[in-house]
Amino acid sequence: MIRKKYTYTSSKFWDFQVGNGRVEMVALAHPIAAAEVKRRCPHVKAVVFDTNTAAFQGKDFDLYAYLETFLAESPDLEYISIASSILDRLPSNIIQLPLIGLELHNCVALTNLPEILPQLKHLETIHLGAIALELGEAFYQLPYLQSLVLHGTTLLDIHHLVNCTELRYLEIRRSGIVSLPNISQLKQLKTFICSDAPHLEALPELKGLECLEWLNLNNLPQVKSIPDQFQGLTALKRVNLIRLGTKEMPIELPTSINQVPTLEYLNISTIWTQQLPLLDEQLQGLKEIYLSDLPLIKTLPESIGNISHLERLSISRCPNLVSLPKTLGDLRHLKYCHLEDLPITTLEIERGAEASPLNLTLRDLAQLRNIDQKLLRECKQLIQLAIIDCPLLETFPTLSASNESLKVLHLKNCPKLTELPESIGDCEVLDYFRLDAVGLKTLPQRFTALHSLTKIEILNCKDLTYLPTAIAEFPHLEILDLRRSKHLLHEGVVQARDIFPIDAEKYKLDDAQQKAVLYWLLNNHRHETLSLDIRKASLTILGLPHEDLRLLILKHIWRMNPNQISFTDIELKQGATVHILGQTEGKKADLRKDLEDLGLTYKTRWSKGIDYVLVGKKPKIPANFWEKPRFLLTEVELAAVKKEKLPNLLQPVEIVNDFVSQLYPLLWSIKSEDELKALKLAKDNGLPELLHPAFIVVAKTSPDKKVRADYRKFLKGRLNDAEQKVLTDRNKMDLKKHESYVFLSNYVSNTFITSMIVTHYKRSGLFLDLFFRYDDGNSPFRADLFQDLLPTLLKKTKYLNLHHGLTEKEITYVLNLPQFKGVLERLVIRSPHLKSLPKSILQHSSLKILEIGNNFQATKLPDALFSLEKLHELRLYWYKLKEVPASVQALKRLKLLFIYAQNPVLLPNELTKLPKLKTIQMQNGIANIEAMKAALPTCAFLSPNGRL
After folding, report:
1. Which of 466, 489, 505, 511 has the maximal Cβ count within 10 Å?
2. Cα separation of 30 and 9, whole Å?
3. Phi, psi of 386 (to 5 degrees)
4. d(Cα 505, Cα 548) in Å, to the nearest integer?
């Protein structure tokens, strides 16, 4: 369609979209002058007017005059879309535009369209929606009309449609039309879509449509038959026959569909018919068949096995189809087979040894009890098998070494399947193994032979009581997901020591790997920048929530101690040294006193002689940590020992330590019970000013209405005027909207804003980018949030956008990541923290597009920048820049030079040595503009608003 050819933005977001100056289509939800649109989007060629919004429908607003003026000031528009329930006529000056596309929606009052259409001589596309009108008798005279779309349109008369001889695309949807003209005269038509026409009684002839490639007939309940003229459709490739006929009046499908050798795709769905077309070897090009929701079909033609090139077959929701053709095994090129919601009891498909690799999915087969042994035992090319929602399946067919290609095995909701065959161990290339709500009690012993596994998921398998500990030694395992099978961990079925390679001697891990393993276990970061080998070795992605995993590890931390003895069970050695690693729940001063009361010596610095290590959150593990056996303990264990040995020293009432750090996890939760618990703690102990932002976020965003009310009531009188304004303003300061944080800066400090963003992000996962926009680099949460940001930066290794307000240190860290080495082609860095060009950019010699700024202090570009010889575009936001050096001549491939500086910039004559340079764009001009124009006569000199 015409609309898709334009790069798009909305007037709500164009500041974020048009930085590259290439936006060609703008959607206007409120009146904006054409000059303003052109200023922001100088290349605009298409405009979408959504005039049904309140901004356009004021009592004193003249919509017709606004459109007439806008069109008069936009003589180059190629495409216009108008949605309006009040517009009664199109502006007459629309005919002066070189329009190639016109789209009208909900223009129910429009009267002059039949007069306007014939005068739009350049139209290629007409798209009309929800309009009651006559197209008129002259619209077919449009010489270039190729696409006509009529959606929800009450068509009074379209018999002149047959004269649109150049039409390539015709779509009629949601129409009350009763009959269609004879479209067989449209010799150029490639696509015909007729859908949702409840009153249409007959389809037009098709035999003359020699160019027709796609036929889509959908939801035509009154149509009694489909013209049996497919043998003449010599170009037909795709056919959709959906929701045709009724239970009382079944439809007969055309048999001549078998005589279309070019047909590649056939979808027959939700049709009341008693018999399908023959479907045989005459369909030489057919690659995909989809049969679904056919309530009267009892059998499929055996001839389907003769379609020699069929690659995809899907049969679903046929309640009377009790058996499948045995000839399905003859489909040698079949790659994907999907069987769903069929009443079959036994699956018998015998595939030949030379068959193509097959992905087989069996879903919701409620009566299936048996799967033919031959299907799996003799199918060498089965690469994926998914059996889902088969509640009566009791036995899994025997596998063998013949299944040499099976890579994925997925079993779900098969409660009667209590065991898998030992022969699963013969599937040597099995890569992904998933169990979900399967009745297995144990895995086969030979499961440990599947050394190729990279991903294991075991979910909701409540009867499974054992996992082989050898899976910790699988060399390629990256993911072990036990999310909904926590009993395997909590009930001691799987011990932490068994799953995680903690034993350095057993697993031969070096110091760095040992450090990484313990770091993973106690910090639970999913996206730490460690080598892939270390991440694989430590099985980093377990699937449990971070806090659950940390508590689980701490609960069993004694398993990492020498001889697996708990700190609570040893005889304390008086004077033994203790060091605290990481953040603690209690105050370290109180913990230190507890240690001293027990006769232990507290050491503030790490040394090789440390005997006991108290482990908290996010510990920084010393390099020599494993040099000698050390006891690990937790605060819980320390409290237990103190209670036993020094009962008289215990306080009568437990004192809440480190109040703020205790509240943050509760405030970051969206569970009502956690939010109310945080509120109670604040009522009992007071509300530190540091927590005002977090409490405001909960008061405005909690899913529980009562919680929001309780928080607002509690905060009343505790906030200053500005903070109270943030709390009570529900429009401009709706924290669920990105733009609301801009308004916050008018009332509270950036530090306050970043604290709110952290809380909102922890609760919802939203607006992480805004944190870096407002944070000055001093937030205590910045390091953690930077780690959360990394995965989004790594999505595209060829294109890196660091428009996040990152510090130079963080930017350098990202640019040094190995994922970008040698492949990075486009780099965008816009950060107020940058004072100079980061040297780490220069290592990326593969760069083709570089955009960078903001607060650079130098007045001249550094020569080192021009070592990036592959640059095609160089965009610099360098406010103090005064000149470009002669060394720019090294950029032989440069096509565009853009500089945003405070003053005119002096350009060197050496730019003439750049053979591909076509565009120079300067914000505040060029100091030697006339000389440059003379030296570069073929180059375009531009400002953001036009030519220099």
Report:
1. 489
2. 14
3. -125, 120
4. 28
